[in-house]
Amino acid sequence: MRLSFLTDTRQGNTEVDDMQTSETSARDAGRRSVDGQSDAAGTAHHGRIDADAEPPSDEPAPLSVKDLTVAYQRKPVLWDIELTLPEGRLIAVVGPNGAGKSTLIKAVLGLVPRASGQISIYGKPYETQRHLVGYVPQRESVDWDFPVNALDVVAMGFYRKIGWLRPVTRTHRRAALKELEKVGMATFAHRQISQLSGGQQQRVFLARALAQDARVYLMDEPFAGVDTATERAIIALLKDLKASGKTCVVVHHDLQTVPTYFDHVVLLNMRVVAYGSTEAVFTEENLKKTYGGRLTLLSQAFYELSKDPRLPRGKKGTSE
User: Fold this and answer.
1) Which residue from 52, 92, 140, 172 could staple onto 262, CB 3.0 to 4.6 Å apart?
2) Whose CA is closest to 239, among 305, 316, 141?
3) Chain-centre distance for alpha carbon 140
4) For position 244, what pLDDT does the model report?
5) In the chain, % of residues over pLDDT 70
6) Distances in Å between the alpha carbon of 215 and those of 2, 63, 87, 98, 128?
């Protein structure tokens, strides 16, 4: 019975003592292991581009990642990740399969062990700021046969406020129903989650994230496998969150919609190729670096289409 998606996230206890006690040699070995992919991955934070950089501010960033390395069985999956993401933006994390996009989200949340690195939420360690972070996992990571209905799932978003082993009150259920209304799922409140479609299930988890009332939202491929109506609902939700000053970091795979949906982008392939405003970073040159010069003809066509000034399009971070 898998309950990890329902509970508060905790740092894993998997041991990486060998890597930690020989950090210097591990770094050297890791660098050698990714040298053969340098054309695809570029040079981490050295490749940062941000033409619309935020002015210097004394306010801490909503999400800061310093010197993050994650390895599975001593093989680096993420290497020397350095990111400082701005507040109140819709930020896409883009890269090829196996680039470490989902691992980045999980490392921030402490769901996978880190060989090195620090994660800060508004200038403080994630472990002390977890109440400020909302999470929408991949659908594939959820046990949809768990015996709860849609309203129960959303009410779980209030657990940090309610407290463990304390009952969910009518007030909390009414609040959960309001969150379901925001994503168009109020009529399905008492439907078993296994009986919902993929798009409906995704909306329920978005409502659960809203119930957490976070300041930073991490979403792992929320658009994957959803219908058009759900995609529109997600975009509307992202726009509302941005308008209220929230920061949304979204793992995304559809290159065609990146310039339309997001105003910032992180290009990732084990290392950070570039990150910053979509207009400055989402270029053909950077995409070739990210995908190793192997952009498919279809992806190339999507990229060119997205840049065509003759086509009607909304503002960055909107779907209009």
Assistant:
1) 92
2) 316
3) 15
4) 93
5) 72
6) 27, 10, 9, 28, 14
